[in-house]
Write a structure and sequence with these properties.
single chain, alpha+beta, Heat Shock Protein 90, 5-stranded mixed sheet, two-stranded antiparallel ribbon, transferase, protein dimerization activity, kinase, Signal transduction histidine kinase subgroup 3 dimerisation and phosphoacceptor domain-containing protein
Protein backbone atom coordinates (compact mmCIF):
# COMPACT_ATOMS: atom_id res chain seq x y z
CA UNK A 1 0.00 0.00 0.00
CA UNK A 2 2.83 2.40 0.83
CA UNK A 3 4.46 1.71 -2.52
CA UNK A 4 1.19 2.44 -4.33
CA UNK A 5 0.88 5.80 -2.57
CA UNK A 6 4.48 6.72 -3.34
CA UNK A 7 4.03 5.77 -7.00
CA UNK A 8 0.86 7.88 -7.18
CA UNK A 9 2.75 10.82 -5.68
CA UNK A 10 5.53 10.36 -8.22
CA UNK A 11 3.06 10.38 -11.10
CA UNK A 12 0.87 13.27 -9.93
CA UNK A 13 3.23 15.69 -8.16
CA UNK A 14 4.75 18.51 -10.23
CA UNK A 15 7.70 20.23 -8.50
CA UNK A 16 7.13 23.30 -10.66
CA UNK A 17 3.57 23.56 -9.30
CA UNK A 18 3.87 22.42 -5.66
CA UNK A 19 0.34 23.69 -4.89
CA UNK A 20 -1.93 21.56 -7.10
CA UNK A 21 -5.32 22.77 -8.24
CA UNK A 22 -8.66 21.44 -7.08
CA UNK A 23 -9.05 19.26 -10.17
CA UNK A 24 -5.69 17.60 -9.55
CA UNK A 25 -6.44 16.99 -5.87
CA UNK A 26 -9.82 15.39 -6.66
CA UNK A 27 -8.23 13.35 -9.45
CA UNK A 28 -5.61 11.94 -7.06
CA UNK A 29 -8.20 11.24 -4.34
CA UNK A 30 -10.30 9.28 -6.82
CA UNK A 31 -7.21 7.36 -7.90
CA UNK A 32 -6.46 6.46 -4.28
CA UNK A 33 -10.02 5.12 -4.05
CA UNK A 34 -9.41 3.05 -7.20
CA UNK A 35 -6.02 1.73 -6.13
CA UNK A 36 -6.25 0.90 -2.43
CA UNK A 37 -8.13 -2.24 -1.33
CA UNK A 38 -10.27 -0.83 1.50
CA UNK A 39 -11.77 2.29 -0.13
CA UNK A 40 -12.30 0.37 -3.38
CA UNK A 41 -15.78 -0.61 -2.26
CA UNK A 42 -16.74 2.97 -3.12
CA UNK A 43 -15.69 2.47 -6.74
CA UNK A 44 -18.36 2.67 -9.41
CA UNK A 45 -18.88 4.05 -12.90
CA UNK A 46 -19.36 7.48 -11.40
CA UNK A 47 -15.78 7.63 -10.07
CA UNK A 48 -14.38 6.79 -13.50
CA UNK A 49 -16.66 9.33 -15.19
CA UNK A 50 -15.60 11.96 -12.63
CA UNK A 51 -11.94 11.36 -13.44
CA UNK A 52 -12.67 11.52 -17.18
CA UNK A 53 -14.31 14.94 -16.73
CA UNK A 54 -11.48 16.25 -14.55
CA UNK A 55 -8.37 15.09 -16.38
CA UNK A 56 -8.52 17.89 -18.99
CA UNK A 57 -8.15 20.48 -16.23
CA UNK A 58 -5.94 18.52 -13.89
CA UNK A 59 -2.18 18.89 -13.87
CA UNK A 60 0.75 16.55 -14.48
CA UNK A 61 0.02 12.85 -14.47
CA UNK A 62 -3.75 13.15 -14.90
CA UNK A 63 -3.83 11.22 -18.21
CA UNK A 64 -1.77 8.44 -16.65
CA UNK A 65 -4.13 8.25 -13.66
CA UNK A 66 -7.17 8.09 -15.92
CA UNK A 67 -5.55 5.37 -18.05
CA UNK A 68 -4.81 3.38 -14.89
CA UNK A 69 -8.40 3.75 -13.66
CA UNK A 70 -9.78 2.58 -17.00
CA UNK A 71 -7.55 -0.50 -16.84
CA UNK A 72 -8.61 -1.18 -13.24
CA UNK A 73 -12.36 -0.69 -13.64
CA UNK A 74 -13.24 -1.62 -17.23
CA UNK A 75 -13.41 -5.30 -18.16
CA UNK A 76 -12.54 -7.35 -21.20
CA UNK A 77 -11.30 -5.87 -24.49
CA UNK A 78 -13.12 -2.63 -23.68
CA UNK A 79 -10.43 -1.71 -21.14
CA UNK A 80 -7.74 -1.62 -23.83
CA UNK A 81 -9.95 0.24 -26.30
CA UNK A 82 -10.76 2.90 -23.70
CA UNK A 83 -7.13 3.13 -22.65
CA UNK A 84 -6.18 3.73 -26.29
CA UNK A 85 -8.82 6.45 -26.41
CA UNK A 86 -7.35 8.15 -23.31
CA UNK A 87 -3.88 8.05 -24.88
CA UNK A 88 -5.21 9.42 -28.18
CA UNK A 89 -7.09 12.27 -26.50
CA UNK A 90 -3.98 13.11 -24.50
CA UNK A 91 -2.05 13.42 -27.77
CA UNK A 92 -4.75 15.67 -29.27
CA UNK A 93 -4.50 17.95 -26.24
CA UNK A 94 -0.72 18.31 -26.68
CA UNK A 95 -0.11 19.22 -30.32
CA UNK A 96 2.45 21.99 -29.86
CA UNK A 97 5.02 19.85 -31.67
CA UNK A 98 5.75 16.21 -32.44
CA UNK A 99 7.82 15.64 -29.32
CA UNK A 100 5.21 17.13 -26.99
CA UNK A 101 2.51 14.96 -28.55
CA UNK A 102 4.52 11.73 -28.44
CA UNK A 103 5.83 12.48 -24.95
CA UNK A 104 2.32 13.11 -23.60
CA UNK A 105 0.89 9.97 -25.19
CA UNK A 106 3.69 7.66 -24.13
CA UNK A 107 3.73 9.11 -20.61
CA UNK A 108 -0.03 8.56 -20.32
CA UNK A 109 0.39 4.94 -21.40
CA UNK A 110 3.46 4.10 -19.32
CA UNK A 111 2.29 5.91 -16.20
CA UNK A 112 -1.12 4.26 -16.52
CA UNK A 113 0.52 0.85 -16.87
CA UNK A 114 2.78 1.48 -13.87
CA UNK A 115 -0.11 2.52 -11.60
CA UNK A 116 -2.32 -0.30 -12.92
CA UNK A 117 0.52 -2.81 -12.65
CA UNK A 118 1.45 -1.91 -9.09
CA UNK A 119 -2.21 -1.91 -8.01
CA UNK A 120 -3.29 -5.07 -9.81
CA UNK A 121 -0.17 -7.03 -9.02
CA UNK A 122 -0.63 -6.19 -5.36
CA UNK A 123 -4.21 -7.50 -5.63
CA UNK A 124 -3.04 -10.64 -7.40
CA UNK A 125 -0.34 -11.23 -4.84
CA UNK A 126 -2.94 -11.01 -2.07
CA UNK A 127 -5.35 -13.28 -3.94
CA UNK A 128 -2.69 -15.84 -4.73
CA UNK A 129 -1.37 -15.80 -1.18
CA UNK A 130 -4.87 -16.34 0.19
CA UNK A 131 -5.42 -19.22 -2.25
CA UNK A 132 -1.94 -20.71 -2.00
CA UNK A 133 -3.27 -24.03 -0.73
CA UNK A 134 -5.84 -24.45 -3.50
CA UNK A 135 -3.22 -25.66 -5.96
CA UNK A 136 -1.89 -28.13 -3.39
CA UNK A 137 -5.40 -29.49 -2.84
CA UNK A 138 -5.99 -29.77 -6.59
CA UNK A 139 -2.65 -31.51 -7.05
CA UNK A 140 -3.41 -34.03 -4.31
CA UNK A 141 -6.85 -34.71 -5.79
CA UNK A 142 -5.31 -35.31 -9.22
CA UNK A 143 -2.66 -37.61 -7.74
CA UNK A 144 -5.36 -39.60 -5.97
CA UNK A 145 -7.29 -39.92 -9.19
CA UNK A 146 -4.17 -41.03 -11.07
CA UNK A 147 -3.29 -43.56 -8.36
CA UNK A 148 -6.85 -44.86 -8.30
CA UNK A 149 -6.78 -45.49 -12.06
CA UNK A 150 -3.36 -47.15 -11.87
CA UNK A 151 -4.23 -49.39 -8.92
CA UNK A 152 -7.52 -50.39 -10.50
CA UNK A 153 -5.83 -51.34 -13.76
CA UNK A 154 -2.92 -53.22 -12.14
CA UNK A 155 -3.66 -54.38 -8.59
CA UNK A 156 -7.43 -54.32 -8.80
CA UNK A 157 -7.48 -56.39 -11.96
CA UNK A 158 -4.97 -58.85 -10.45
CA UNK A 159 -7.08 -59.31 -7.32
CA UNK A 160 -10.24 -59.73 -9.39
CA UNK A 161 -8.43 -62.36 -11.44
CA UNK A 162 -7.38 -64.11 -8.24
CA UNK A 163 -11.01 -64.38 -7.08
CA UNK A 164 -11.95 -65.79 -10.49
CA UNK A 165 -9.10 -68.32 -10.35
CA UNK A 166 -10.13 -69.29 -6.82
CA UNK A 167 -13.62 -70.06 -8.07
CA UNK A 168 -12.07 -72.31 -10.71
CA UNK A 169 -9.74 -74.04 -8.22
CA UNK A 170 -6.56 -72.99 -10.05
CA UNK A 171 -4.32 -72.56 -7.01
CA UNK A 172 -1.00 -72.68 -8.89
CA UNK A 173 -1.95 -69.74 -11.08
CA UNK A 174 -3.17 -67.85 -8.02
CA UNK A 175 0.25 -68.18 -6.39
CA UNK A 176 2.09 -66.89 -9.48
CA UNK A 177 -0.31 -63.98 -9.96
CA UNK A 178 -0.23 -63.03 -6.27
CA UNK A 179 3.58 -62.99 -6.30
CA UNK A 180 3.59 -60.60 -9.28
CA UNK A 181 0.99 -58.37 -7.64
CA UNK A 182 2.98 -58.34 -4.37
CA UNK A 183 6.12 -57.28 -6.26
CA UNK A 184 4.12 -54.47 -7.87
CA UNK A 185 2.78 -53.34 -4.49
CA UNK A 186 6.32 -53.13 -3.12
CA UNK A 187 7.58 -50.96 -5.99
CA UNK A 188 8.14 -47.26 -5.42
CA UNK A 189 5.55 -45.23 -7.33
CA UNK A 190 6.75 -42.98 -10.16
CA UNK A 191 7.67 -39.43 -9.29
CA UNK A 192 4.67 -37.11 -9.60
CA UNK A 193 4.47 -34.77 -12.55
CA UNK A 194 4.76 -31.00 -12.18
CA UNK A 195 1.67 -29.73 -10.35
CA UNK A 196 -0.97 -28.30 -12.71
CA UNK A 197 -0.68 -24.54 -12.90
CA UNK A 198 -2.77 -22.04 -14.79
CA UNK A 199 -1.97 -18.59 -13.52
CA UNK A 200 -2.36 -15.47 -15.65
CA UNK A 201 -0.11 -13.42 -13.40
CA UNK A 202 3.12 -13.79 -15.44
CA UNK A 203 1.16 -12.99 -18.60
CA UNK A 204 0.08 -9.75 -16.95
CA UNK A 205 3.20 -8.78 -15.04
CA UNK A 206 5.95 -9.33 -17.58
CA UNK A 207 4.29 -7.58 -20.56
CA UNK A 208 3.60 -4.56 -18.36
CA UNK A 209 7.21 -4.56 -17.22
CA UNK A 210 8.51 -4.69 -20.80
CA UNK A 211 6.00 -2.14 -22.15
CA UNK A 212 6.86 0.42 -19.47
CA UNK A 213 10.56 0.11 -20.24
CA UNK A 214 9.89 0.48 -23.96
CA UNK A 215 7.69 3.53 -23.28
CA UNK A 216 10.40 5.35 -21.38
CA UNK A 217 12.93 4.33 -24.02
CA UNK A 218 10.77 5.80 -26.80
CA UNK A 219 10.14 9.08 -24.95
CA UNK A 220 13.83 9.53 -24.15
CA UNK A 221 14.88 8.66 -27.70
CA UNK A 222 12.41 11.15 -29.18
CA UNK A 223 13.68 13.79 -26.74
CA UNK A 224 17.27 13.28 -27.84
CA UNK A 225 16.30 13.27 -31.49
CA UNK A 226 14.31 16.50 -31.06
CA UNK A 227 17.32 18.17 -29.41
CA UNK A 228 19.06 18.20 -32.82
CA UNK A 229 22.32 16.98 -31.36
CA UNK A 230 25.35 16.58 -33.59
CA UNK A 231 25.68 13.02 -34.93
CA UNK A 232 28.83 12.53 -32.87
CA UNK A 233 26.75 13.15 -29.73
CA UNK A 234 23.39 11.70 -30.82
CA UNK A 235 24.74 8.25 -31.74
CA UNK A 236 26.49 7.67 -28.38
CA UNK A 237 23.46 9.13 -26.63
CA UNK A 238 21.09 6.64 -28.25
CA UNK A 239 23.47 3.77 -27.49
CA UNK A 240 23.73 4.89 -23.86
CA UNK A 241 19.92 5.14 -23.69
CA UNK A 242 19.49 1.62 -25.05
CA UNK A 243 22.13 0.24 -22.68
CA UNK A 244 20.65 1.88 -19.58
CA UNK A 245 17.12 0.73 -20.44
CA UNK A 246 18.24 -2.82 -21.21
CA UNK A 247 20.16 -3.06 -17.95
CA UNK A 248 17.17 -1.66 -16.09
CA UNK A 249 14.95 -4.38 -17.53
CA UNK A 250 17.55 -6.97 -16.58
CA UNK A 251 17.68 -5.71 -12.98
CA UNK A 252 13.86 -5.61 -12.78
CA UNK A 253 13.24 -9.13 -14.12
CA UNK A 254 11.75 -11.51 -11.51
CA UNK A 255 14.19 -13.86 -9.82
CA UNK A 256 14.18 -16.24 -6.84
CA UNK A 257 14.10 -14.67 -3.35
CA UNK A 258 17.48 -13.50 -2.14
CA UNK A 259 19.12 -13.92 -5.55
CA UNK A 260 20.71 -10.88 -7.14
CA UNK A 261 20.79 -10.50 -10.93
CA UNK A 262 23.74 -12.34 -12.43
CA UNK A 263 26.86 -10.18 -12.65
CA UNK A 264 25.12 -7.35 -10.79
CA UNK A 265 28.54 -6.34 -9.46
CA UNK A 266 29.37 -5.32 -13.02
CA UNK A 267 26.02 -4.37 -14.55
CA UNK A 268 24.96 -1.97 -11.78
CA UNK A 269 28.13 0.18 -11.87
CA UNK A 270 28.00 0.07 -15.68
CA UNK A 271 24.41 1.31 -15.71
CA UNK A 272 25.24 4.05 -13.23
CA UNK A 273 28.21 5.18 -15.31
CA UNK A 274 26.16 5.22 -18.50
CA UNK A 275 23.32 7.14 -16.79
CA UNK A 276 25.73 9.79 -15.45
CA UNK A 277 27.61 10.23 -18.73
CA UNK A 278 24.92 12.45 -20.42
CA UNK A 279 25.36 14.96 -17.58
CA UNK A 280 28.64 15.85 -19.24
CA UNK A 281 27.51 16.17 -22.85
CA UNK A 282 29.18 19.25 -24.38
CA UNK A 283 26.17 21.47 -25.08
CA UNK A 284 23.97 20.74 -22.05
CA UNK A 285 23.42 17.99 -19.46
CA UNK A 286 20.76 15.31 -19.97
CA UNK A 287 19.69 13.89 -16.59
CA UNK A 288 16.75 11.74 -17.81
CA UNK A 289 18.55 8.44 -17.24
CA UNK A 290 19.50 9.02 -13.60
CA UNK A 291 16.11 7.68 -12.46
CA UNK A 292 16.84 4.32 -14.10
CA UNK A 293 20.11 3.87 -12.23
CA UNK A 294 18.51 5.02 -8.96
CA UNK A 295 15.68 2.53 -9.53
CA UNK A 296 18.21 -0.28 -10.03
CA UNK A 297 19.89 0.62 -6.75
CA UNK A 298 16.52 0.29 -4.98
CA UNK A 299 15.84 -3.02 -6.73
CA UNK A 300 19.21 -4.72 -6.32
CA UNK A 301 20.53 -3.42 -3.00
CA UNK A 302 19.00 -3.74 0.44
CA UNK A 303 17.13 -0.71 1.76
CA UNK A 304 19.74 0.35 4.28
CA UNK A 305 22.30 0.50 1.48
CA UNK A 306 20.06 1.66 -1.37
CA UNK A 307 18.42 4.69 0.27
CA UNK A 308 21.68 6.52 1.10
CA UNK A 309 23.09 5.57 -2.31
CA UNK A 310 20.05 6.93 -4.14
CA UNK A 311 20.20 10.11 -2.09
CA UNK A 312 23.87 10.51 -2.94
CA UNK A 313 23.24 9.92 -6.67
CA UNK A 314 20.39 12.46 -6.77
CA UNK A 315 22.41 15.01 -4.82
CA UNK A 316 25.39 14.53 -7.12
CA UNK A 317 23.09 14.96 -10.12
CA UNK A 318 21.68 18.21 -8.75
CA UNK A 319 25.19 19.53 -8.04
CA UNK A 320 26.41 18.56 -11.52
CA UNK A 321 23.47 20.32 -13.18
CA UNK A 322 24.00 23.40 -11.02
CA UNK A 323 27.67 23.53 -12.06
CA UNK A 324 26.56 23.22 -15.69
CA UNK A 325 24.38 26.29 -15.27
CA UNK A 326 20.96 24.66 -15.12
CA UNK A 327 18.35 26.97 -13.59
CA UNK A 328 17.21 26.04 -10.06
CA UNK A 329 13.61 25.38 -11.12
CA UNK A 330 14.67 23.10 -13.97
CA UNK A 331 17.22 21.45 -11.68
CA UNK A 332 14.49 20.71 -9.14
CA UNK A 333 12.21 19.35 -11.85
CA UNK A 334 14.78 16.87 -13.21
CA UNK A 335 15.90 15.79 -9.77
CA UNK A 336 12.33 15.02 -8.75
CA UNK A 337 11.71 13.38 -12.13
CA UNK A 338 14.63 11.02 -11.48
CA UNK A 339 13.26 10.20 -8.02
CA UNK A 340 9.76 9.56 -9.42
CA UNK A 341 11.11 7.26 -12.13
CA UNK A 342 13.21 5.38 -9.57
CA UNK A 343 10.19 4.88 -7.29
CA UNK A 344 7.94 3.76 -10.16
CA UNK A 345 10.41 1.22 -11.49
CA UNK A 346 11.18 0.00 -7.99
CA UNK A 347 7.49 -0.42 -7.18
CA UNK A 348 6.75 -2.21 -10.42
CA UNK A 349 9.75 -4.53 -10.07
CA UNK A 350 8.99 -5.21 -6.41
CA UNK A 351 5.39 -6.19 -7.01
CA UNK A 352 6.27 -8.24 -10.09
CA UNK A 353 8.85 -10.05 -8.00
CA UNK A 354 6.34 -10.56 -5.16
CA UNK A 355 3.85 -12.14 -7.52
CA UNK A 356 6.55 -14.41 -8.95
CA UNK A 357 7.55 -15.44 -5.42
CA UNK A 358 3.97 -16.22 -4.43
CA UNK A 359 3.63 -18.25 -7.62
CA UNK A 360 6.76 -20.21 -6.78
CA UNK A 361 5.55 -20.67 -3.20
CA UNK A 362 2.27 -22.12 -4.47
CA UNK A 363 4.15 -24.47 -6.77
CA UNK A 364 6.45 -25.50 -3.93
CA UNK A 365 3.52 -26.13 -1.57
CA UNK A 366 1.77 -28.12 -4.27
CA UNK A 367 4.93 -30.13 -4.92
CA UNK A 368 5.36 -30.87 -1.22
CA UNK A 369 1.71 -31.88 -0.87
CA UNK A 370 1.96 -34.04 -3.99
CA UNK A 371 5.09 -35.81 -2.79
CA UNK A 372 3.61 -36.26 0.69
CA UNK A 373 0.47 -37.82 -0.81
CA UNK A 374 2.54 -40.04 -3.08
CA UNK A 375 4.50 -41.31 -0.06
CA UNK A 376 1.27 -41.86 1.88
CA UNK A 377 -0.26 -43.89 -0.93
CA UNK A 378 2.91 -45.93 -1.43
CA UNK A 379 3.16 -46.60 2.30
CA UNK A 380 -0.46 -47.71 2.53
CA UNK A 381 -0.20 -49.90 -0.55
CA UNK A 382 2.89 -51.60 0.84
CA UNK A 383 1.57 -52.01 4.36
CA UNK A 384 -2.06 -52.90 3.62
CA UNK A 385 -1.80 -54.93 0.43
CA UNK A 386 1.54 -56.60 1.10
CA UNK A 387 0.06 -58.68 3.89
CA UNK A 388 -3.04 -59.67 1.93
CA UNK A 389 -1.02 -60.78 -1.09
CA UNK A 390 1.48 -62.68 1.08
CA UNK A 391 -1.42 -64.43 2.80
CA UNK A 392 -2.89 -65.35 -0.59
CA UNK A 393 0.48 -66.82 -1.62
CA UNK A 394 0.68 -68.91 1.57
CA UNK A 395 -2.85 -70.23 1.23
CA UNK A 396 -2.40 -70.87 -2.48
CA UNK A 397 0.77 -72.87 -1.84
CA UNK A 398 -1.02 -74.87 0.83
CA UNK A 399 -3.87 -75.58 -1.56
CA UNK A 400 -1.34 -76.89 -4.09
CA UNK A 401 0.45 -79.08 -1.52
CA UNK A 402 -2.70 -80.37 0.17
CA UNK A 403 -5.49 -80.83 -2.40
CA UNK A 404 -7.80 -82.23 0.29
CA UNK A 405 -7.80 -78.77 1.97
CA UNK A 406 -7.89 -76.73 -1.26
CA UNK A 407 -11.60 -75.82 -0.98
CA UNK A 408 -11.06 -74.28 2.45
CA UNK A 409 -7.94 -72.40 1.35
CA UNK A 410 -9.53 -71.17 -1.87
CA UNK A 411 -12.47 -69.82 0.11
CA UNK A 412 -10.03 -67.96 2.35
CA UNK A 413 -8.22 -66.63 -0.72
CA UNK A 414 -11.49 -65.28 -2.09
CA UNK A 415 -12.28 -63.57 1.21
CA UNK A 416 -8.80 -62.01 1.49
CA UNK A 417 -8.83 -60.88 -2.16
CA UNK A 418 -12.23 -59.21 -1.77
CA UNK A 419 -10.98 -57.33 1.27
CA UNK A 420 -7.85 -56.31 -0.63
CA UNK A 421 -9.97 -55.04 -3.54
CA UNK A 422 -11.80 -52.78 -1.07
CA UNK A 423 -8.41 -51.56 0.20
CA UNK A 424 -7.28 -50.81 -3.37
CA UNK A 425 -10.35 -48.60 -3.85
CA UNK A 426 -9.99 -46.90 -0.46
CA UNK A 427 -6.24 -46.17 -0.34
CA UNK A 428 -6.11 -43.36 -2.95
CA UNK A 429 -9.08 -41.65 -1.28
CA UNK A 430 -7.43 -41.99 2.14
CA UNK A 431 -10.73 -43.41 3.35
CA UNK A 432 -9.71 -46.92 4.29
CA UNK A 433 -11.29 -48.53 7.33
CA UNK A 434 -9.31 -48.22 10.54
CA UNK A 435 -7.49 -51.44 11.35
CA UNK A 436 -8.41 -53.35 14.48
CA UNK A 437 -5.73 -55.02 16.59
CA UNK A 438 -8.10 -57.82 17.53
CA UNK A 439 -8.96 -58.49 13.87
CA UNK A 440 -5.33 -58.40 12.78
CA UNK A 441 -4.32 -60.69 15.64
CA UNK A 442 -6.91 -63.26 14.62
CA UNK A 443 -5.83 -62.99 10.99
CA UNK A 444 -2.15 -63.35 11.87
CA UNK A 445 -2.88 -66.44 13.98
CA UNK A 446 -4.75 -68.01 11.07
CA UNK A 447 -2.24 -67.17 8.32
CA UNK A 448 0.90 -67.99 10.32
CA UNK A 449 -0.64 -71.26 11.44
CA UNK A 450 -1.47 -72.04 7.82
CA UNK A 451 2.17 -71.36 6.95
CA UNK A 452 3.21 -74.01 9.50
CA UNK A 453 4.17 -71.84 12.48
CA UNK A 454 3.02 -72.42 16.03
CA UNK A 455 1.70 -69.09 17.32
CA UNK A 456 1.26 -68.02 20.96
CA UNK A 457 -0.47 -64.69 21.51
CA UNK A 458 -1.52 -62.60 24.50
CA UNK A 459 -5.12 -61.35 24.67
CA UNK A 460 -5.76 -57.90 23.22
CA UNK A 461 -5.81 -55.07 25.79
CA UNK A 462 -7.98 -52.00 25.53
CA UNK A 463 -6.12 -49.07 23.91
CA UNK A 464 -7.03 -45.69 22.39
CA UNK A 465 -8.33 -46.21 18.85
CA UNK A 466 -5.35 -44.51 17.15
CA UNK A 467 -2.86 -46.63 19.09
CA UNK A 468 -4.91 -49.78 18.52
CA UNK A 469 -4.89 -49.12 14.74
CA UNK A 470 -1.18 -48.32 14.80
CA UNK A 471 -0.23 -51.55 16.58
CA UNK A 472 -2.56 -53.44 14.24
CA UNK A 473 -0.53 -52.07 11.32
CA UNK A 474 2.71 -53.11 13.06
CA UNK A 475 1.34 -56.62 13.64
CA UNK A 476 0.22 -56.91 10.02
CA UNK A 477 3.66 -55.91 8.67
CA UNK A 478 5.43 -58.18 11.17
CA UNK A 479 3.28 -61.12 10.04
CA UNK A 480 4.04 -60.25 6.41
CA UNK A 481 7.79 -60.29 7.13
CA UNK A 482 7.54 -63.67 8.86
CA UNK A 483 5.70 -65.05 5.83
CA UNK A 484 8.09 -63.54 3.26
CA UNK A 485 11.52 -63.63 4.92
CA UNK A 486 11.70 -66.48 7.42
CA UNK A 487 10.99 -70.15 8.00
CA UNK A 488 9.58 -69.68 11.47
CA UNK A 489 8.28 -72.66 13.41
CA UNK A 490 7.40 -70.72 16.54
CA UNK A 491 6.06 -67.16 16.80
CA UNK A 492 5.06 -65.30 19.96
CA UNK A 493 3.01 -62.10 20.14
CA UNK A 494 3.09 -60.31 23.51
CA UNK A 495 0.97 -57.23 24.22
CA UNK A 496 0.90 -55.28 27.50
CA UNK A 497 -0.12 -51.79 28.59
CA UNK A 498 1.33 -50.21 31.71
CA UNK A 499 2.14 -46.68 32.89
CA UNK A 500 0.52 -45.09 29.79
CA UNK A 501 2.79 -47.11 27.50
CA UNK A 502 1.75 -49.99 25.27
CA UNK A 503 4.36 -52.65 24.59
CA UNK A 504 4.10 -54.96 21.56
CA UNK A 505 6.79 -57.64 21.25
CA UNK A 506 6.78 -60.09 18.34
CA UNK A 507 9.42 -62.84 18.23
CA UNK A 508 9.98 -65.77 15.93
CA UNK A 509 12.58 -68.50 15.64
CA UNK A 510 12.96 -68.22 11.87
CA UNK A 511 16.19 -67.13 10.23
CA UNK A 512 15.63 -64.17 7.90
CA UNK A 513 16.64 -64.71 4.30
CA UNK A 514 17.84 -61.10 4.19
CA UNK A 515 19.80 -61.22 7.45
CA UNK A 516 22.61 -58.96 6.25
CA UNK A 517 20.39 -56.57 4.32
CA UNK A 518 19.32 -53.16 5.65
CA UNK A 519 15.74 -52.72 6.88
CA UNK A 520 13.20 -52.99 4.09
CA UNK A 521 10.56 -50.46 3.08
CA UNK A 522 7.98 -52.02 5.41
CA UNK A 523 10.09 -51.56 8.54
CA UNK A 524 10.97 -48.03 7.48
CA UNK A 525 7.27 -47.27 7.04
CA UNK A 526 6.50 -48.68 10.48
CA UNK A 527 9.34 -46.78 12.11
CA UNK A 528 7.97 -43.53 10.62
CA UNK A 529 4.44 -44.29 11.75
CA UNK A 530 5.49 -45.21 15.29
CA UNK A 531 7.86 -42.23 15.62
CA UNK A 532 5.13 -39.87 14.42
CA UNK A 533 3.02 -41.08 17.37
CA UNK A 534 5.88 -40.55 19.83
CA UNK A 535 6.87 -44.22 20.13
CA UNK A 536 9.92 -46.29 19.28
CA UNK A 537 10.37 -49.40 17.17
CA UNK A 538 13.40 -51.68 17.44
CA UNK A 539 14.32 -54.89 15.66
CA UNK A 540 17.11 -57.16 16.82
CA UNK A 541 18.41 -60.70 16.90
CA UNK A 542 17.75 -62.45 20.21
CA UNK A 543 18.79 -65.89 21.42
CA UNK A 544 16.88 -68.36 19.33
CA UNK A 545 15.41 -65.95 16.80
CA UNK A 546 14.35 -62.43 15.86
CA UNK A 547 12.45 -59.75 17.79
CA UNK A 548 10.41 -56.69 16.88
CA UNK A 549 9.64 -54.41 19.86
CA UNK A 550 7.37 -51.36 19.92
CA UNK A 551 7.05 -49.06 22.93
CA UNK A 552 4.17 -46.70 22.28
CA UNK A 553 2.84 -43.95 24.60
CA UNK A 554 -0.92 -44.06 24.74
CA UNK A 555 -1.53 -40.49 25.92
CA UNK A 556 -1.33 -38.74 22.55
CA UNK A 557 -0.89 -39.43 18.89
CA UNK A 558 0.27 -37.95 15.64
CA UNK A 559 -0.58 -39.09 12.17
CA UNK A 560 2.05 -40.52 9.83
CA UNK A 561 3.01 -37.03 8.67
CA UNK A 562 3.46 -35.59 12.17
CA UNK A 563 0.09 -33.89 12.73
CA UNK A 564 -1.03 -34.29 16.33
CA UNK A 565 -4.26 -36.15 16.96
CA UNK A 566 -6.47 -36.59 20.01
CA UNK A 567 -6.84 -40.18 21.16
CA UNK A 568 -10.32 -41.65 21.15
CA UNK A 569 -11.16 -44.48 23.53
Amino acid sequence: MVIILVVLAGVAFDPLAPLPGVATIVMVILQVVHSLPRPRRLVGPWTLVAQALLFVWAGQGAPGLLAASVLLIARGPARWVLTGAVVAVTGLLNTADAYTCVNAMVNALTQGLVVFGVTRLNDLRTELDAARHELAEASVAEERERASREFESVLGSSLSAITALAAQGRAGEIVALARRAAARARQAPPAPAQPPFDDLTPRLALPILVTVHLGFLIVSAVFLWRAALPPAVLAPGLLILAGVTGLQLRHSWPRPPGVRPAYAGWTLPLQLALALAPLFFPERPYPQLIGFAAGSLLIVWTRWAAFPAVGAVLAATAVAMALRGVAPAENLYWTFNALAIAVMFHGLALHTDMVAQVRQARLALAGIALERERRRIARDVHDLLGYSLSAIVVKGELAVRMPERSAEQLADITRIAERAIADVAAIPRDSGQTLSLATELASALEVLSTAGASVHADPVVELPSEIDALLAMVLREAATNVLRHSRAQLCRIELTSQDATACLRITNDGVADTDAAPPGQGLRNLTQRVSAHGGTLHTSHVPGGYELLVLQPTGFGRDADGVETVPRT
